Request: fold
Amino acid sequence: MKNATPEQKLKRVNEFFNRRIEFGDDQGIWGRSDYWSAPAETMGKGRGDCEDFVIAKYFSLLDLDIPDNQLRLIYVRARLGGPGSAVQQAHMVLAYYPTPESDPLILDNLITDIRPAQRRPDLAPVFSFNRQGVFVGVAAGGQASGGPERLSAWQDLLLRAKREGFN
Reply:
């Protein structure tokens, strides 16, 4: 799959995890209220919450030579039931930026297809991050508002992912 186009890689990775991982909450899986699992942990359990799906997709795409600066993990407020719904929930998705100016493509465990962010009015971005930093909003060219060390769960996860062989 290393020779596939970026879009083919996105599609295959998104489908792989969306089909093979069952959604579950951290309390039921890990016995704690919030835990960001490394990819091998998620695969070992066969279950995960939205962060776990995103983390597994992120590291898989990095391993398939998608550059880190083209990927962002994005915390969003998701409107359950569509953009007109009053019911909101904290959620995480993965964004891929083909170019810094482009509308990112959104990989999500809630829907099967990958859509441009403009076609996801049910998601309201809060902040985004990757190994390079934490960003206000989602614009690819945006300046980091701080280093990734600001997120302790992310730092802990990066150490565990490194032990799994992800650099």
